[in-house]
Amino acid sequence: MRLISRLSWLFVGGLFIFSGLIKINDPVGTAIKLEEYFDVFAADFSSFFLIFKPYALFLSIFLSALEIILGVALLLRWRLRQILRGLLVLIIFFTFLTFYSAYFNKVTDCGCFGDAIKLTPWQSFSKDILLLLLIVVLLATRRYLPETKTARVAGVLVALTAILSFGIGIYAYNHEPFIDFRAYKVGNNIPALMKPSSPLRYKYIMARNGQEKEFTQYPTDSTWKFKQMVAINPEDGPKITDFNVWNDQGDFTQEVFSGNKLLILVQDVSKVNPKKFADINNLIVAAEKSSKNIKPVVVTASSTQDFDVFRHEANLSAPYYFGDATVLKTMMRANPGIMLLKNGQVVGKWHYNDTPGIQTVERQL
Question: Contacts from 225-228 at CB under 8 Å and sequence distance 24+?
Answer without folding.
Answer: 228/204
